[in-house]
Design brief:
The protein is an all-alpha fold. It contains nine helices and no strands. The chain has two domains: 46 residues, Arc Repressor Mutant, subunit A (Orthogonal Bundle), CATH 1.10.10.60; 132 residues, Orthogonal Bundle (Tetracycline Repressor, domain 2), CATH 1.10.357.10. Helix 1 packs across helix 4 and helix 5 packs parallel to helix 8. The protein is elongated, with a radius of gyration of 20 Å. Keywords: DNA-binding, Transcription, Transcription regulation. Pfam families: TetR_C_24 (PF17932), TetR_N (PF00440). GO terms for molecular function: DNA binding.
Length: 197
């Protein structure tokens, strides 16, 4: 148990240091200090800074995927699934504002192997939500449109909106979040719904 706890502390600390300093400027000593462990302890778990960085990115991606899976169940109907995705997206961005710095400062260190792995995870999630869109089509809830492009438009719009709202002051966040979600979902459902003649 202590092994897992120490490893997680190191991964969590590395995320903060990489976000603040970038991969090249981050030192193992900085990560060790942030984690409250000796520098040598890091090497008990990771052979290099690169391995630690890649593990941190993968753990973060898997955590986001798990959060989505935990909040969206198969017994939900089409509307409930899209609403749940919207709320989870806002939660992720609000609680992980360092994502932008992590990606912006460290993108050049995403090698082909890591990029391929992330692409696989992204495609799995896109395929899942394409399936949700197809459910909406098959049930007659939404019009017969290309589910892939509908998914990309939904997630893309949600991405930009959540980033905008989640960088507001905390005092304004809750109020603006609900207003933004209501507006976004109203527009999306109105555009997707099947018109009855």
């Amino acid at each position: 148990m202590q092994f897992a706890d120490t490893k997680w502390k190191i991964i969590h600390a590395s995320r903060k240091v990489f976000a603040e300093k970038g991969f090249h400027n981050a030192k193992m000593e900085d990560i060790a200090d942030e984690a409250g462990v000796g520098k040598g302890t890091i090497y008990d778990y990771f052979s290099s800074k690169k391995e630690l960085f890649e593990t941190m990115i993968k753990e973060m991606a898997m955590g986001f995927r798990k959060l989505i899976q935990e909040n969206i169940s198969e017994d939900m109907d089409f509307d409930e699934k899209l609403k749940a995705l919207a709320r989870v997206k806002f939660e992720i961005i609000k609680n992980h504002k360092d994502i932008e710095n992590l990606v912006f400062k460290n993108f050049s260190n995403f090698d082909e192997s890591l990029m391929g792995w992330l692409e696989k995870i992204r495609n799995e999630m896109l395929e899942y939500f394409e399936g949700v869109m197809q459910e909406g089509i098959d049930s007659g809830r939404i019009k017969d449109i290309n589910p892939k492009y509908a998914t990309l438009m939904y997630i893309g719009g949600l991405h930009f909106l959540s980033h905008y709202i989640c960088h507001m002051e905390d005092a304004d966040y809750e109020k603006e979040k609900e207003s933004a979600l209501d507006t976004f979902l109203s527009i999306m459902f109105k555009g997707l719904e099947k018109k009855c003649l």
